[in-house]
Structure formats: structure tokens, C-alpha cells
Amino acid sequence: MIKELPKLNYAFDALEPYIDTQTMEVHYTKHHKTYLDKLTMAITGTPLENMELEDILMSPEAIDENIRTAVINNGGGVFNHNFFWSVIGPAKSTGPDGMLLEKINGTFGSFDMFKEEFTKSALGLFGSGWTWLVQDKEGNVKIMNTQNQASPISEGYKPLLALDVWEHAYYLKYQNRRADYITNWWNIVDWANITL
Ligand code: MN
């Protein structure tokens, strides 16, 4: 089980001006940390303590009912943020290539059309949640939203790309302007770290 926050490969100010330093710091040291603390609290002394987080979230129905909601919310919060930090970064990569680009082109028509559809999905998400590019067991890619901290791995999907659409991810800089946050976020997607 995860006991610590993952080490970020970049500084809190490295994603400026697209994501501001204060948002990064609060997001990582407060929000992400709180999910980890609450997850630890929920599973300490239970058999889940010795399991991998991925394995727990892949079979949510197997979690003891008394702690299921806490584990899904906080374990999902840990997993989703770990993943989110890994697919963004200061490296200026312009887009996917190779097999991933082929899949995106084949599914959405073009990279631009994919971005448009992904953005639309994120803008349409009501309340708090995430927008994802995921791959199913047959290898197909698709865009999906999840509510709150639900994770696509609980539905059998492999996450390829994640956008945190919770207000805590953008409110300090963008307030209610979610569209501006998303537009700018594309600049910090680190495509080199995204693999099928
Ligand atoms: Mn978040």
C-alpha cells in the first residue's frame, strides 16, 4: 500500500503560467495529502493494508461495506492524483505519436478532434470529477468522465490521460472559468509519459 505521496518530477512553479504555483502546492500538499491520510486511516488494521491500491480499486465490491465508501473516495483520490501528476509536466511535448496517435486518429478523426471532444466532455461534467482518455481490454480508446474520485480502473479501464476537473484544481487562478483552465492545461500534458 502507498504510504507516501509520490515524488513530483517538477517543482510547484514549473507549470506556470498554465497552473499557478499556489494551486500546485495546495493541491499536492493539502488535497492529495488528505486523501492519503484518510485512506490510511480507513484501512489501517484491515486486510487492505497489505494490498496494492490498484488491486483494491479494481474490485471495489470486495471492499468491506463499512469502509467501502471511504476507500473508494480516498483511495481513488490517491490513485487519480498520482496518475494526474505523471501525465503533466513542464516538458513541451506537442502531442502523442506512434501507436497512441494512430488510435486517437482512428477513433476521433484527428488529434484536434480528440482534444475538442475531450474538452467538451470536461466542460460537461457536472460537479466534481475527472475526464479521462482510457483504453479498454480490447485495446480501444475512449473518453469518459468519472464523478468525485471514482477511478476508471474500477470499471476495468486502463487510464491513459487524466484531467482533474474539481474546482480545487483551478479555482485560485481561474475561478469559474473552467474552459480557460482546460485550454491552458493542454500545454502541460506530457505526451512522452503517456503510453498504451
Ligand atoms: Mn485534485
Helices and strands in order, then pairings?
Layout: H1 21-43, H2 53-58, H3 65-87, H4 98-108, H5 111-123, E1 129-135, E2 141-147, E3 158-164, H6 171-174, H7 178-185
Helix pairs in contact: 1-3, 4-5
Pfam families: Sod_Fe_C (PF02777), Sod_Fe_N (PF00081)
GO molecular function: metal ion binding; superoxide dismutase activity
Family: Belongs to the iron/manganese superoxide dismutase family.
Radius of gyration: 17 Å
Bound ligand species: manganese (II) ion
Structural class: mainly alpha
**What is the CATH C level class of the largest domain, in words?**
Alpha Beta
In what range is the share of β-strand residues? 5-15%
- How many domains would you count in the coordinates? 2
The rounded distance between the terminal residues' Cα atoms is 25 Å
Mean pLDDT: 96
What name does the CATH topology of the largest domain carry? Answer: minor pseudopilin epsh fold
Helical proportion? 40-55%
Helices, by number, come to 7
Question: How would you name the CATH homologous superfamily of the largest domain?
Answer: Iron/manganese superoxide dismutase, C-terminal domain
Helix-strand sequence: HHHHHEEEHH
Strand order of the largest sheet: 2-1-3
Q: What is the CATH architecture assignment of the largest domain?
A: 3-Layer(bab) Sandwich
Outline the biggest β-sheet.
3 strands, antiparallel
What's the count of strands? 3
| Low-confidence sequence ranges | none
User: What is the global morphology?
Assistant: globular
Catalytic activity: 2 superoxide + 2 H(+) = H2O2 + O2
Protein name: Superoxide dismutase
Function: Destroys radicals which are normally produced within the cells and which are toxic to biological systems.
GO molecular function, one term: metal ion binding
